[in-house]
Every structure is written in C-alpha cells, then in structure tokens.
Design a protein that fits this description.
Layout (H helix, E strand, L loop, with lengths): L1 H16 L12 H11 L2 H6 L8 E2 L10 E5 L29 H7 L2 H17 L4 E3 L22 H16 L4 E7 L12 E3 L2 H8 L1 H8 L5 E4 L3 E2 L2 E2 L4 H11 L5 E3 L8 H6 L28 H8 L5 H17 L14 H14 L1 E5 L20 E4 L24 H9 L3 E4 L17 H15 L4 E7 L22 H11 L3 E6 L14 E4 L7 H10 L35 E3 L8 H7 L16 E3 L3 E3 L2 E8 L5 E11 L10 E10 L4 E7 L6 E4 L4 E4 L4 E8 L2 E6 L1
Parallel strand pairs: 2-3, 3-4, 4-6, 5-7, 5-16, 6-9, 11-12, 11-13, 13-14, 14-15
Antiparallel strand pairs: 1-2, 7-8, 10-15, 17-19, 18-19, 19-22, 20-21, 20-25, 23-24, 25-26
Helix pairs in contact: 2-12, 4-13, 5-6, 5-13, 6-8, 13-17, 14-17, 15-16
C-alpha cells in the first residue's frame, strides 16, 4: 500500500512539473495553440464549435478544456440575459447595466478619445457579465433618413465612421472582449432586409460602404465580423464567397471569425464554402426534444459534417473555420489577461454623461428680441413658469428598438433632471402619446386620448413664460427600430402641429429632439432654439440639462445631413428602384454621391449641413497656410466662454480624370479653447488621403494632380486653398 501511495505522489509531482499542453498554455503563441488544439479534435468536435449551442453561445470542447464563446447584443450596452433556448428574458436580478449613448451620438462628438473611452467602458460591462463577444459596433452607411436602424450606426461619411470606430474597437479588445463589427455589408435599410439584393458600382462599394469595415480590420484588428442578411450579387452576405473569402480574408488579411447574423444562413454548401465561420440563430427551436429542428440540424452542423465525411468538401475547409474560432476563443474566453470588468460603476455613468454632452448638437439658437441674448443657455432668473411638453421628457428611450434594447439599473429622464435643477418652476404636459414600444407592429393610439393630451399642453402653455418641447423619434416599430423603416420624413404623432401651435403661444421656446435620423422641420422658423440629442442612454437627463443650463458648452457636430425636404436626398430622384427597391432588387444609383457629397453634386442646400453644430461661444479661423504637404490654420475663441471646436479638413480633386465629389472629409481635429485663446491646427496631405477607387482600372489609385483644400467648421462653412 505504501508503495502505491508513493508511486501516486511521484506521478502527481511529475504531472505538475510537466509543461502544460500547448493549447492550454496561455503563454504559448496563439497560432501554436490553435494548431495543436485542432490536431487533438475529432471531426464532430470541430463541427460543434462552428455553430450555435444556444441563443447566444457557441460550443467549446469540454473534453479538451476549451471554453465556449459567450456572445451578447451591443453595442450600447449588454443585453439582458435570455433563457438558454428562447427569446424570453431569463429574469435575472443581476443583469442591470448602464445604457451608453447611441453610436450616432458618439459619431456626433467627433472625438476619437471619447470613442476609446466608450469602447473601454462598455466592454468592461461585457467582461463583468462573462461575455466574450460584443455584437457591435455597427458602421453601415446612413444613405436614407428612413433607416430604422441608423441610430446604431455612425453616420453618412465613411471616413468619420472609420475614425470613430477604430479607437472604440482597440479599446474594447484590450479588455479581452471581441468586437463583432456589423453588418457586413450593405445592410443599409430594414425594409426587405432578409431578401433584398443590393446593386451598386465597385467604386461605391469600396469607397463608401466597405471602407469603415476595412479600417476596422486593417487598423483596429477587429476579432470578429458579422455577416448581413441582405444579398450582394445574388448571394447572401453571410456566406458570400467573393465578399468573405475574397475581399475580407484574402485582400484585407482578416484572421478572425465571421459570425452570421441570427438567421442569416440559408444554405449548407454556401455556408461551408462561402467564408462563414460560426452560424448563429438559424432556427428558433433549439434542442428541445419535441423540436423538429435542433442545433445539430443547423446548416454548419450535421449537414456539413456529412459532406466532410463523404469527402465532398475537404477537411481543410473545416479546419480553417475551426482555426478562426479557436483564435477568437484564445483571444477572449481563454485570454489570461481578460479584464474582470465592472458594472454600473461611477466611471461608466460619467463616461455615458460625457459622451452624451459632447454628442448633443445645437442646431439653432437665436434671441427672441433685439435686446436679448440667444435663448440658450437658459437664464433661470428670467423664467418663473417653465413648461416641459413632450413624451420623450419621461419616456424610456433605452427600451425597444430591437436587439439593442437594454435593461438599465438607473436612468435619469429629462424631466427628472430639469426638476432637480429648477424645482417648482417646472410643470409638465405630455402633449402626445406614441403607444408601446413593440418590435414588429405599431401600437394603436386612441384619437381621443391624443386630442386630450394636446389640449392640456396648449392650455398650460398659456401660463408659461418658457416652453421646453422634448420629442422626436423613439424606439417603436416604424420609428428607430430594427426590422422596419420609418414610413416618412415627417415626425409622427402630430408633433409638427403641436410644436407649431405651442410656438404661436410662446416665443420663448426650446425644441429638444431625440432620434437617430433627420426629419422635416416645418416649424423651424418659429422656434428660438433647437437641440438634437440622438439617444443619450442612462444619463440622458443630466447630459441634456448640463447643456441647457450652460454648465457644458455644446460641441456636437452632425454626422449626417439634414435636408429641408425628403426629396432632396440624393437617391430619392431615382424613385423606388433606389429605395426601398423593386422585386427585391435595390439599385444605389446615386453611386458615391451619398449624404453631403450628393447635396453638393446636385447643388441642393440642406437645412443643416454635414459637420454643422453651434456653440455658446464663437470661433474665428485664420487664413490657411501651406508648407510642403502640411496645411495649417489658426483658430481663436472669440467668445466669452470656454468651448470645443471641431476643425474639419476636406480635399477636392481639381483635375481628376474621373468624376469626383466637390470635396470629401479627410481629417478632423477637436480642440478646446479658452476665451481669447488661439491654437494652430495642422493637417498632413499623405497618399492615403489622395486615394480613390478607379472605375477605369477597377482598383485603388492615388491622385497626383492639383487639389483644393477646404478647412472649416462644417462641410458648408469652409475656406479653400490650392495645394
């Protein structure tokens, strides 16, 4: 017996001193770990890791100690826990989180450092919840103001979206949480999103729609990418060989995993050979015994395994997918340096509020009489009766919207924040109702209820000496919500009529709008001040009130163009073929002329141009100077308060042999200036700023002819200089 015990002890000592298996050694190079793990896996184990095992997980290899991947919706916060195999909430009590501002709001900050702050904070919450993959951020281009999901994206310009998404990804992935950038690619509308085939030129594809994704891969080294539902060249993007194996993996060198959008996989052979690595959400039944389909019936499950066993698809194809999945696991779930993270911390609420403050855009601010200063910031000593009107003053804008819906621990509404600051001076009238936030249908509204709310608001307005209207869009179906586009450019729920009637009663009126899209403003000449807030998250009220009160000087700039009329958007003149499509075919006939590029090309004046945003101070630009390939300009704060200004740098090709926009955003700097302070801002014109995708050669070319530089505070307020 003693000999047996001694032998056992010696065996244990030997095992403890033996070097760990390569795939379990966190210090070993990842590629060695991947290669070694694949060599130990059975064919069935390989198949198991490339498709879902629950609503938001894909399997690991328990026999080998390889962990599963835990995914969850983002990118504005971690979605609440769902049951393992249904879309029902799990009803946990520890999954309350911070809702961060929408990505349109982040883009409106034009602040790269804040983007890194955002990525760090939101990924800490993902890490704390045990998540390995954050399904986001999104960088689809906002070509239409009707896109129900545009609030999740970063505007109309590929350069701005690229510059804002790169630090977000880099910061998030430092914490061991993979970003899954989405939706790759051309998922630019929710109408017919599962079946529409997008037709466009290679020039528009590469210059406009692919560019933010390319930068996410090449510059940020994003770990995962989500394929989109729609089709390109007649093939679904979730398993499109030319897109995934060609452009993404071969041309850009992407070494991570392609994850399907939930239900985006439609065919086993295409999924196997077309570049998809992890299939998620193809069926909603899961592995319940009474189900007709189980997770093992997914396209990349038993059907794919059968093709491998029959030799119809070589093992190398499966191994390549498995390598990408293992690489992701070792970077996240089995990363020894993965952050522990935190949830609902003071730092996260501060980040939320700061991003919201810098993303709010002041669009109009005038005096109501010649003797007065502009209406904002508010002077509380001038107003004794402040009426707050509008449903969005109290409505939760973190709920609804589809997969981005969030379960928050604590939200501050605009009305709560205004009451906390101004106390009994504040009165409230809802003014209108929009119904419940339903994912796939519009809630019916009682006309009598709507009329009564309007009457109440108008009656209270007669006794007010200041009105703050807080409305706009919300997360209802056919508003800013997944799985449906807006039905028109006008605001819903009779808001335009209500605003007009309120303005006729009281000229001291501030309009505060929430939403991820532009909208018509027939009342714009009747109101003194207008703020656009996007969606501000959990600290919405505090961020808004800090701007209204002047505690924070507004510095947001529009990442999208606001048109005077819907018909002015560049694609609209091509009628239904260009949006929403005909017979499941949509044609991007405006080509590269998206957003401000198209407005300038068509010589149409917008209501508010791309890059526009006012401040409580004023800035003076000096004359730009050129030294070699560097362009500099002095910017001075000529006002009375400290403020931030975003200096925008555009380039126009004067004699390009191919048709080009008047100018395109190529750089920007956001600086803070004290009253009277001047700073010199410089931009370098390198080859990367002179690239364009040539129609003639069907590849990227570098322009080497004369160009014109434009510098200013918006796309429509610039000085030019030849280079």
């Amino acid at each position: 017996m003693k000999k047996i015990i001694v032998s056992a002890i010696l065996l244990l000592l030997t095992m403890n001193t033996t070097k760990a298996q390569v795939y379990l050694d966190p210090q070993a190079p990842i590629e060695e770990r991947v290669k070694d793990a694949i060599s130990r896996m059975t064919t069935h184990e390989k198949i198991q890791v490339i498709h879902a095992q629950s609503k938001f997980t894909s399997a690991g290899v328990p026999r080998l100690g390889i962990r599963q991947l835990n995914m969850d919706d983002g990118p504005h916060g971690v979605r609440e826990e769902l049951e393992w195999n249904t879309w029902n909430p799990a009803k946990w009590t520890n999954d309350f989180i911070v809702a961060f501002p929408s990505l349109t709001c982040l883009a409106a900050t034009w602040n790269r450092e804040l983007s890194a702050t955002y990525g760090n904070a939101v990924s800490e919450e993902f890490a704390f919840r045990g998540k390995d993959v954050m399904l986001g951020p999104g960088v689809n281009i906002q070509r239409t103001p009707l896109n129900g999901r545009a609030f999740e994206y970063m505007g109309e310009d590929p350069y701005l979206a690229s510059e804002m998404v790169v630090p977000y990804i880099q910061s998030a992935q430092k914490n061991g949480v993979a970003c899954c950038i989405k939706h790759f690619v051309l998922n630019d509308q929710e109408t017919d999103r599962f079946a529409v085939n997008v037709n466009l030129s290679n020039r528009a594809l590469h210059e406009i729609y692919l560019e933010p994704f390319r930068r996410a891969v090449v510059d940020a080294h994003v770990y995962t990418i989500m394929g989109s539902y729609n089709m390109w060249k007649g093939v679904h993007c979730c398993h499109n060989d030319e897109l995934l194996n060609g452009i993404l993996k071969r041309d850009w060198g992407f070494d991570g995993a392609v994850i399907s959008d939930w239900g985006g996989t439609t065919d086993t052979w295409q999924a196997a050979t077309g570049g998809l690595d992890i299939e998620m959400g193809s069926y909603t039944d899961g592995k319940l015994k009474e189900s007709e389909f189980t997770y093992d019936d997914y396209y990349l499950a038993r059907p794919f395994e059968k093709l491998i066993e029959e030799g119809k698809i070589p093992m190398e194809v499966l191994d390549e997918k498995v390598a990408r999945v293992l690489r992701t696991i070792f970077r996240t779930a089995m990363n020894p340096d993965k952050a522990i993270g935190s949830q609902c911390s003071d730092a996260h609420y501060e980040a939320c509020r700061t991003i919201g403050e810098e993303g709010i855009v002041l669009l109009k601010n005038v005096a109501t009489s010649k003797k007065e200063h502009p209406l904002l910031p508010l002077d509380p000593t001038k107003y004794n009766k402040i009426l707050v009107v509008g449903e969005n003053a109290t409505r939760s804008l973190t709920q609804g919207g589809g997969s981005s819906e969030l379960k928050t621990l604590h939200d501050v509404s605009p009305l709560e924040a205004l009451q906390a600051l101004y106390g009994d001076k504040i009165d409230h009238a809802q003014g209108y109702t929009s119904g419940r936030a339903i994912y796939d249908q519009v809630d019916r509204i009682d006309p009598a209820r709507q009329a009564a709310l309007k009457t109440e608001a108008l009656e209270k307005a007669r006794n007010a000496d200041l009105i703050i209207f807080i409305g706009g869009l919300n997360k209802n179906h056919r508003q800013d919500c997944e799985n449906g586009d807006r039905e028109g450019y006008a605001l819903s729920f009779d808001q335009n009529e209500l605003i007009g009637e309120l303005a006729a009663i009281q000229q001291n009126m501030v309009v505060v709008m929430f939403g991820g899209n532009p909208y018509a403003m027939p009342w714009i000449d009747s109101v003194a001040a207008l703020l656009h807030c996007w969606y501000l998250g959990s600290e919405a009220g505090n961020a808004l009130v800090n701007i209204l009160s002047g505690k924070v000087c507004p510095s947001g700039k529009l990442p999208v163009t606001f048109a005077k009329r819907y018909e002015h958007y560049p694609y609209v003149k091509y009628i239904n073929e260009s949006y929403p499509g005909v017979n499941k075919q949509v044609y991007y006939k405006e080509d590269i002329y998206v957003g401000y590029r198209g407005f300038e090309h068509d010589k149409v004046e917008p209501l508010f141009p791309f890059g526009f945003g006012l401040s409580y101070t004023t800035f003076k630009y000096g004359k730009p100077t050129v030294a070699g390939n560097t362009v500099s300009v002095d910017v001075t704060n000529t006002g009375e308060v400290e403020g931030k200004e975003t200096i925008q740098f555009y380039i126009g090709f004067e004699k390009c042999p191919e048709d080009r926009p008047l100018k395109e955003l190529k750089d920007f700097r956001k600086i803070s200036l004290k009253p009277g302070e001047t700073k010199k801002v410089s931009f370098t014109v390198g080859k990367e700023k002179l690239r364009y995708y040539s129609i003639a050669s069907d590849k990227w070319e570098t322009y080497d002819g004369p160009c014109k530089i434009y510098i200013g505070g918006s796309s429509a307020n610039v000085q030019s200089i030849k280079l």
